[in-house]
């Protein structure tokens, strides 16, 4: 069954308003292991921020500290300007959606969604109204009497989302909510989540290790590494102007090219590139520059424009574009190049590449 588009939230449901959410110098230790090392993160009301990073970077721990599932070892957690660091999870008025749907298999969709309202002793008549509204928001009208085993993975996850929204929480926390779904459903559902939280104006923290997911859904992204936030910015800022080598390497694909630092930038294979991050490099120092594949231009060997000579190692069709790997004649360095899908290059074909003057991050060698 195809994934339906969610309907517009009803007036009662769309009354949910976002509040400010923040971590202030939060530290979390387990014995001698410090997992969060002074994490500070401020979310404006209604903002959607992704915590992005590899396994073990601390992103899920940060989310659990926000939720109250973990007690902070230092710092403070604020929701709506109120310090909730010592407030238990059931008193924080937040909604959570996990990777595992965690639906009750013996309850219908309607009863799964109503569970939190029952715990809050909401009147039966109002429960029915709010359950219907929440299911309409996620596009599951008519599914009230089905059981979880009768639903697809995407539908089950939308039930979990409805259950989190039905209590009208101050903030919504999502921990890898789409990673168990297949690729097409994952893309459709992330678009629906974005549309829903934007319409409701609910402040949302979304944890993921999937960079494409983070860039597609977020107002801002916090890239985490080793218990710290390496960079916080819009998807465009992170991709185009990475602040550290880790961000440049983790967010998107980059070619690592040797260069020499100058006052005006970094000289890479005879081309002066602007610098987004110097990593404290000084003029004359040898570094590695991170150059995006789309910032490498690829042409035929008889192209009259200046460029670096090389030969094609491989070329792969990726739908809307093609990625070609070129080995430079000068030093054998292999570069990934993204270009139009209709431009086909064969393995072994001589080519020329040029570098676009776009900002690059640097790493000391």
From TrEMBL:
Q: Which UniProt keywords apply?
A: ATP-binding, Nucleotide-binding, Transport
**Cross-referenced InterPro entries:** AAA+_ATPase, ABC_SmlMolc_Importer, ABC_transporter-like_ATP-bd, ABC_transporter-like_CS, Mo/tungstate-bd_C_term_dom, P-loop_NTPase, Transp-assoc_OB_typ2
Q: From which residue to which does any coiled coil extend?
A: none
PROSITE patterns cross-referenced by the UniProt entry: ABC_TRANSPORTER_1 (PS00211), ABC_TRANSPORTER_2 (PS50893)
Recorded hits in Gene3D superfamilies, A to Z, give:
2.40.50.100, P-loop containing nucleotide triphosphate hydrolases
Superkingdom as given in the UniProt entry:
Bacteria
List the GO cellular component terms. Answer: ATP-binding cassette (ABC) transporter complex
Key word Transport present: yes
**Record flagged with keyword Transport:** yes
Q: In the record, what terms sit under GO molecular function?
A: ABC-type quaternary ammonium compound transporting activity; ATP binding; ATP hydrolysis activity
**Enzyme Commission number:** 7.6.2.9
The chain positions of domain ABC transporter read: 21-251
Pfam assignment, any one: TOBE_2
The identity of this protein, by name, is: ABC-type quaternary amine transporter
Organism of origin is Galactobacter valiniphilus
